[in-house]
Design goal:
This protein has ten helices and no strands. With 162 residues, the protein is an all-alpha fold. The protein is elongated, with a radius of gyration of 23 Å.
Length: 162
């Protein structure tokens, strides 16, 4: 009994110290989903560059666009239509800049994408004067690379509303 409980105790100790092993898992049993700790799942996003997707829709004939949009759930369809209208109102230069920003964003690791996305949402919730103040805050400058800070600054322009 003592020999058998030693590995379990060791596993529990490692689990408590590292916070990664539940008592059931330490005993070799499967933990139920409510007991096991898992990293939150990232929301599923369409693959590829969203600006390119919008460009693809913009280049379709109205009939083909309608056919493709009809396959989507109503909420997603409305979202794409709204974004498509805004995208089509941009100049060719603004569209190219938007695509470049999306490509730069996609080159970031998933963790950095999450951090930049979260900060962009935070910035958008602030009045313009506070946005500028936040971007010049030493915390932002320490926590984000120069390239990431550039993406944050560019996110304040109209093309980044997509």
């Amino acid at each position: 009994m003592r020999v058998r409980s030693l590995p379990v105790a060791a596993a529990l100790l490692v689990g408590v110290a590292g916070g990664v092993v539940s008592p059931l898992e330490a005993q070799g049993r499967k933990a139920s989903p409510s007991v096991a700790r898992r990293a939150p799942e990232r929301p599923q996003r369409p693959p590829g560059n969203p600006a390119r997707e919008l460009d693809r829709f913009a280049k379709m004939s109205p009939q083909e666009r309608e056919k493709q949009l009809s396959k989507l759930p109503p909420e997603r369809r409305q979202q794409i239509q709204t974004r498509l209208e805004r995208y089509q109102s941009l100049s060719p230069q603004q569209r190219a800049q938007l695509q470049q920003r999306f490509e730069a964003f996609q080159k970031l690791s998933p963790e950095r994408q999450d951090a930049v996305r979260s900060e962009i949402q935070n910035l958008r919730s602030l009045p313009p004067a506070q946005r500028k103040e936040r971007l010049n805050n030493p915390d932002v400058q320490q926590n984000f690379s120069n390239d990431e800070q550039k993406l944050l600054r560019q996110s304040l322009g109209p093309p980044d509303e997509f």
